[in-house]
Amino acid sequence: MKNYKHLFFDLDKTLWDFTGNNKDTFIDLYTIFKLEEKGIPSAEIFQSTYNKHNNQLWDQYRKGLVEKSFLSVQRYIFTLADFNIHEENLAENMSKEYIRISPLKTKLIPFSHEILEYLSKKYLLHIITNGFSEVQYIKIEKSGLKKYFDKIITSEEAGSMKPNKNIFLYSLKKAMAEVDESMMIGDDVDVDIIGAQSIGMDQVFLNLENHKPSIPITYEIKSLKELIMIL
Predict the structure, then answer these.
(1) What average pLDDT does the segment 174-182 reach?
(2) Which residue, among 78, 71, 83, 90, has the nearest Cα to 33 in the 3D structure?
(3) What is the pLDDT of residue 132?
(4) Band of pLDDT at residue 131, cut at 50, 70 and 90
(5) 14 near 109, Cβ under 8 Å?
(6) What domain range includes position 167?
(7) Bond preceding residue 110 cis, omega within 30 of 0
(8) Residue 209, pLDDT above cutoff 80
(9) Domains held by the chain: number
(10) 147 with 203, same domain?
(11) Is residue 15 within 8 Å of 109, Cβ to Cβ?
């Protein structure tokens, strides 16, 4: 095994429980904006509709086809329109409230603290995330993750998004790390794993949902605690 010195982690769905925290956030939004009174049956149905539009817009955002400001509000405009609600001010307010509430949620993927405590004594740890800077930094602070990490790199800071190789090259430079002494750990093959492979960096795929990756990967784990067996 290589003599690794630097470990780069993805944030959402790798350490921060995006699914659980997002569900809680949408329950809050549903209540705050009294969406039941507007004919939306439940927070779950509202979130499911939102996820469809959000995923499509994020794909366009990663490709540079839409701006952050467009994505942030338009995902709510599209979602509300599916329920025959055409209130741009409501969409704008929901966007602001989501960005305020979401990063305050603190659920983590199981064993996050334990494994980071263990690894931080042996390696320099860093985060590479595609999320919006003003949101991701709050997540890291509020969930108690900040103390483990030397460098935190967001796509906005780097000027490119995973899987673009430029964000990985930028991260190596910022961390003063060499590619052959570094490893990327993430939950998304198309974003984290392929991105790391594009610069020759070893990878760990956190496969929480038991997917069958179609490409060779350096390491695959089913739980963060399995990193102890690798590192």
Answers:
(1) 98
(2) 90
(3) 87
(4) confident
(5) yes
(6) 6-17+108-230
(7) no
(8) yes
(9) 2
(10) yes
(11) yes
Q: What's the farthest any 2 CA atoms get from each other in the chain?
A: 59
Boundary-marking domain end, from 47, 81, 104: 104
Q: Is residue 142 part of a domain?
A: yes
In angstroms, rounded to a whole number, what is the distance separating the alpha carbons of residues 11 and 64? 21
Final residue of a structural domain among 104, 132, 159: 104
Amino acid identity of residue 134, one-letter, is E
Q: What residues contact residue 109 under an 8 Å CB cut-off, 6+ apart?
A: 13, 14, 15, 16, 17, 206, 208, 224
Q: What is residue 128's DSSP assignment? A: E
State the residue for tokens 């927070």.
Answer: 43
What is the residue-averaged pLDDT of the chain?
Answer: 96
> Which residue do the tokens 């997002």 mark?
22
Q: What global pTM score does this model have?
A: 0.94
Same domain, 133 and 86: no
Closest by alpha carbon to 77, among 88, 63, 69, 66? Answer: 88
What pLDDT is recorded for position 44?
A: 97
